[in-house]
Amino acid sequence: MRLHRLDVTAFGPFGGSQSVDFDALSAAGLFLLHGPTGAGKTSVLDAVCYALYGSVPGARHGGQGLSLRSDHADPATRTEVRLELTVAGRRLEITRQPPWERPKKRGSGTTLDKAQTWLRAYDPAAGTWRDLSRSHQEIGEEITQLLGMSREQFCQVVLLPQGDFARFLRADAEARARLLGRLFDTRRFADVEKRLAERRRATEARVREGDAALLADAHRMQQEAGDAMELPELAPGEPGLAEAVLGAAAVARSTARERLTVAHCRLTAAESAQATAEQALAGVRELARLQDRFAEARRRAVLLEEQAGAHREAQARMERGRKAETVAPALELREAAEAEHRRSAAAETRARGPLSQSLADAGAAGLAAAARRAAEELGGLESARRAEQRLAELVAERAGLDRQERADEEVLREAGTWLAGWDATRAGLQNRLEAAQEAATRAEQLAVQREPARRRLDAARLRDELSRDTEAARQRAREAERDALAARAHWLDLKEQRLNGIAAELAAHLTDGEPCAVCGATEHPAPARRVAGHVDREAEERALAAHQRAEERRAESERRLGVVREALAAATAEAGDTPTEQLAAQADEVEREYTRARRAASGLHAAREELRRAEQERERRLTDRQQAEVRAASRLTRRDTLDQERALLEEELAQARGDAGSVAARAAQLERQTALLTEAADATRAAEDSARRLKDADARLADAAYRAGFATPRDAADALLDDAAHRELQHLLDARQSEEAAVRAILAEADTAAAARRPPADVEAAERAAASAAGRLREAASARDAAARCCAELDRLSARAADGVRGLAPLREEYDRVARLAALTAGTSADNERRMRLESYVLAARLEQVAAAATARLRRMSAGRYTLVHSDDRTGRGRSGLGLHVVDAWTGRERDTATLSGGETFFASLALALGLADVVTDEAGGVRLDTLFIDEGFGSLDDQTLDEVLDVLDSLRERDRSVGIVSHVADLRRRIHAQLEVVKGRAGSRLRAQLQGS
After folding, report:
1. How much is the pLDDT for 946?
2. Which of the 8 DSSP states describes residue 837?
3. Burial per residue of 86-105, b for 16 or more beta-carbon CB atoms within 10 angstroms, e otherwise
4. Bridge partners (DSSP) listed for residue 6
5. Which pTM does this prediction carry?
6. Burial environment of residue 349 by CB neighbours within 10 A (0 to 12, 13 to 18, 19 or more)
7. 755, 287 contact by CB (below 8 A)
8. Which of 301-315, 512-526, 547-561, 859-873 tops mean pLDDT?
């Protein structure tokens, strides 16, 4: 992969459009990306990553792309990143635009545009770019497939972050595992570990479930067998549980079968006794039934004789009812006619009530004629209605003209009054504006004077304070000088005393036969003796130390006095000799004048606004006065026209209204009169027709009653039975007939008469005997059924337990096998001596490759001193597999990478990053990475090591690579000629390229 060109617009710190020509920068092999802190060096790398993967690395990734937009960009400029590169032999161009909150084209506010992505490929034959896709997903999959790396791998391999690899060198095994796992995608091995652990837990749970189910069956068998079965005291999962449960179940089944045989014998005897008792009870019950039947038949026969008279009356009533049924249609017709006549008469009375006295006795024809006359008069009022409506419109329009006239008069009066005082108002506002402007100018002048006055006052106060401090410091300096002189004199006195008595001090060290340190004699006949008050060496040294401390205090006091004097001189130069009170009064006066000027100047904007509003008000009132005068002239003509038309309409309406208040009132009066007359005519005709129908119904009813044998229609009506009475009477007659037939049949039965001649039957005694036999039978049957159920349940549970034991055997074998594999891959098995997880084992192999690739460069950077090696030793009680050590060729010892110095850590991490890039590149399918970036860390190297590191980076050109160094180390700008500088400014950053020789 080789980068050719990068174009960014409104991205990160770049407010405008910036371009990077990587072909020109890469011509020298090494190029430097530098700039001040915060200028946007990392943003260039972010733009490359965003163009390829649609997101930026690390913590800067977020906000759905909205955070990528530059705060310096124009609101109408859209953020865009375009990258031109060659990968897998294809020259591609990727353009990405993140989501954009742009201003709305209509109205205020913003709207969100979705992200856009374009992928184009260069066609060498045609010499043009060809569009490939505009789908985010398709482009992401295509780029990932071509590069063979995810975004995380790309950021670690191409954008080498030295800080991450320095931490990698010092990290523990878990931290290294996380980084290597992201780069080499060993999730499948972790998934294998997880899958095996899950299978182990699942299989163990199934084994426990099987044992729990077996033990539950054993508990149910114990519930069925009772004291015939004892449960083993074993928990689920413990060995021997299945055999103990099956043995106890066999004993319980044998005991249950013995109990079932005994219950069968008892049930057979109880069945025989119960059958005999039931036969005896049936015979007694049949005798009692026949005796009761005969006695009941005799009682019913006596009751029938007593009810014979009532039966004959019911038969006569039934006969009269059948005759009256022939008269029923005529009765119903007459009742209907009478009800209709009553309704018609009531309706006629209601309809004639509102009519005048002159029409109270009129017939239907007279009422209909009066209704026609009122309707004809109503039709003639239509034109009068239109005239009345027009008159109302004229009155309303005339009232509107009057209101408009009053309003215009008010407008003219107010405008005249206001405009009369305009000159005075304008002059007052102008004076206010000029005064405010003068105050603002005065405030600006005073603002310039405020700060110097305040500084002089502060300096004067400091001057007074330092004057007091100077005197105190001078006093302390004099005291320290006196103390130092006294200490020096004391030390010199002691030194002189020691020198005077040095002979006695030397004589104290003389030994017979040993040479004297002064004269060399071996004999010491009269050595000097110490006198009272002798000063030894320790006393002199203490006096010397006290003298030195006093000198130090004196020097410190003089230094502090000098500092205070310098500060006093500076404060005096700033404040002068003016007293502090006078300067404070001057500063307060300036502050008061400034406050007054600011207060007066604060009304400048308000005065301008008030003058502008007053001028606008004057223009508005002039316009209103002119318009009111025009409307007044046009109203005169319109008012005359309306008055003439109104007079004509009022004359016409006076004729049409008559004695009514209005044409509408007259029309409503006629409408009500027409409706009342029409209703009265219809009601009168209906009453006359109903009276004729009632008379005809009376005649038909009298004829039908005579034909049926009734003297009057009332007799026929009284004899008529309704449906309920007819059904009830017929039911009584039929019941009497059925009862007589039933009584005769029972009394004629031979076996019933024979049973009546026998003694009364004792049913209670027979029932007690049968009940006792049935109870004994139920007890025996219950005992037999319970024993049978117990046997069947024990057989079923025993069979299920046996099946469970057989099914659990292969499951336990599977659990043992899976548990061994899970413990081995998780590093917890005793067979795994180094306690390495499967993923760690794979990563350890990758780390060996990385260490080998990094060592080739580390040796050159360290002049052959250091070699990186992988270690799978265990650290303490932890696991092994991802240790990383460095071998020092100077000492021949192997030590942890955390012991490297800052500079050594940098070039070791750089070698590790480059080696990791090679290994990941080979892992990704051999995709060539022709452009690399190295971020920071060069400031920790000395000149010689920096030259060696740059030589190693420069050697990458042997593989046709170009390396970009991201750093702000000044020495690199002298060593690397191809440079890309990020220039920071208030309007955003910009890029400036400096190529070799330019």
Report:
1. 66
2. -
3. bbeeebbbbbbbbbbeeeee
4. 20, 83
5. 0.40
6. exposed
7. yes
8. 547-561
